């Protein structure tokens, strides 16, 4: 190989290695957290007599200038700086001179990145919680408009029992409420400051971790420096919480897709969220719910990726954890846009109450009501009542009717054991009566649905 080619190859390999090793092109997302943490660190160092007042003032001024340059697009991110921490520090030193080099006293990039990343995750917990609260409000609002609107309640995607559409909406409100509570719990559990842990064992400098902790809005400093610099549980938790919320988004998206099909026609989505086929002008595709459903996979993948990174790491810090951020950034952006769009889809959809009620007359949804009636009013064993009900179902099929449409004579003719059954049984088979009969706590009756709405409204008020 010629000397020229050998040099080119070496230069190429060096460039590839620099790009492979550097994280600045993605962890620049943390610039704001890095600068705020550095300002807090400098204030603590000054309070402890480690920095002079002038040095601290210069550092803070310089850092704010760096922030302004980044936000205006003037800042040049260089692979040679390796990460956001060195990028900021290098530019700071260019601006203020040697004082910039004193900023890193009593800290390591290990606790620096842990602090920045925790701040980011902590703050995203708050913004995602606000979005979850908003979508719960939307589901509750839709529910309050449909406490009387019948829809087939399903198991195994088969018609089962009549419920009201508001009740169905509140099932999703419950899911997203649990998501809110997971983020809330995670925020509290991880609201501890890593700053001052240094490389892994603390620092000999006379620092005050409680002071920097307070300046950054953390509850307390972390207890163990050794654990702190390698801990990424907070990142795993937000990825898990996002994955669970995305799973819930995927479930409602699946129902929106089904409900908007010709087979169901329960809802009509706004044209903003459903697009016409490129070659079939009569057809609208539920593109947005399909994308919401599809994006769930990337959130799950980001969670599994970080779990895999962390599973074999010894204490303390390892370079592997450079792979902890991109997945979190991606999942955060995914959940934020997904919640925003889903909220608008639910707000703007039109509910076809008539089609939903007509669908309730398919599948004999009040069959269980007849069995329950025979147990309660005729003192029959449930198994006996079950088989008599099957006979009535067969009679309805024979007459091409739904059970709720049978008259008393047709019901009596279905089985000898009910030849003299009281005429009131007809009312028990009425679909709306069937729905309202389920008045137990948590049930589907209009009364219970309204009670559940009140519970949600009180909860929403409590977190304002």
UniProtKB/TrEMBL annotation:
InterPro entries assigned to the protein according to its UniProt record, in alphabetical order: Arg_succ_lyase_C, Argininosuccinate_lyase, Fumarase/histidase_N, Fumarate_lyase_fam, Fumarate_lyase_N, L-Aspartase-like
Keyword Amino-acid biosynthesis among UniProt keywords: yes
Enzyme kind, highest EC tier: lyase
Annotated EC: 4.3.2.1
Segments forming domain Argininosuccinate lyase C-terminal: 365-436
Protein name (record): Argininosuccinate lyase
Source taxon at top rank: Bacteria
GO terms of biological process kind: L-arginine biosynthetic process via ornithine
GO MF terms held by the record: argininosuccinate lyase activity
Main location: cytoplasm
Pfam families xref list: ASL_C2, Lyase_1
Domain Fumarate lyase N-terminal, first and last residues per copy: 12-301
């Amino acid at each position: 190989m010629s000397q020229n080619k050998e040099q080119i190859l070496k230069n190429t390999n060096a460039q590839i290695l620099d790009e492979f090793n550097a994280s600045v092109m993605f962890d620049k997302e943390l610039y704001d957290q890095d600068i705020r943490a550095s300002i807090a660190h400098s204030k603590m160092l000054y309070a402890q007599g480690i920095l002079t007042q002038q040095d601290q003032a210069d550092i803070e001024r310089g850092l704010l200038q760096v922030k302004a340059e980044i936000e205006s697009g003037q800042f040049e991110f260089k692979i040679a700086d390796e990460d956001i921490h060195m990028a900021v520090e290098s530019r700071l030193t260019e601006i203020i001179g040697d004082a910039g080099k004193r900023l890193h006293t009593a800290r390591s990039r290990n606790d620096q990145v842990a602090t920045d990343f925790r701040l980011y995750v902590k703050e995203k917990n708050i913004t995602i919680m606000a979005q979850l609260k908003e979508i719960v409000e939307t589901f509750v609002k839709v529910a309050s408009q449909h406490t009387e609107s019948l829809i087939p309640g399903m198991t195994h995607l088969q018609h089962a029992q009549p419920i009201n559409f508001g009740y169905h909406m509140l099932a999703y409100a419950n899911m997203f409420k649990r998501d809110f509570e997971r983020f809330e719990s995670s925020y509290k559990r991880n609201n501890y400051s890593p700053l001052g842990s240094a490389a892994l064992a603390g620092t000999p400098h006379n620092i005050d971790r409680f002071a920097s902790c307070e300046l950054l809005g953390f509850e307390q400093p972390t207890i163990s420096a050794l654990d702190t610099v390698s801990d990424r549980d907070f990142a795993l938790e937000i990825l898990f919480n996002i994955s669970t919320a995305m799973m819930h988004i995927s479930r409602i998206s699946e129902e929106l897709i089904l409900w908007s099909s010709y087979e169901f026609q329960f809802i009509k989505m706004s044209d903003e969220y459903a697009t016409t086929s490129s070659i079939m002008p009569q057809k609208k595709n539920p593109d947005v719910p399909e994308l919401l459903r599809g994006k769930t996979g990337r959130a799950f993948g980001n969670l599994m990726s970080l779990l895999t990174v962390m599973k074999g790491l010894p204490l303390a810090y390892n370079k592997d954890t450079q792979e902890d951020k991109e997945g979190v950034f991606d999942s955060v952006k995914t959940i934020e846009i997904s919640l925003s769009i889903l909220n608008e889809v639910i707000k703007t959809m039109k509910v076809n109450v008539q089609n939903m009620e007509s669908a309730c007359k398919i599948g004999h949804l009040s069959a269980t009501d007849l069995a329950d009636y025979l147990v309660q009013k005729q003192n029959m064993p449930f198994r006996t009542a079950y088989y008599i009900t099957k006979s009535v179902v067969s009679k309805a099929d024979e007459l091409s009717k739904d059970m709720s449409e049978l008259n008393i004579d047709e019901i009596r003719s279905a089985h000898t054991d009910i030849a003299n059954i009281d005429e009131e049984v007809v009312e028990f088979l009425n679909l709306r009566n069937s729905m309202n009969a389920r008045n137990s706590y948590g049930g589907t009756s209009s009364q219970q649905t309204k009670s559940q709405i009140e519970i949600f409204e009180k909860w929403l008020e409590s977190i304002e």
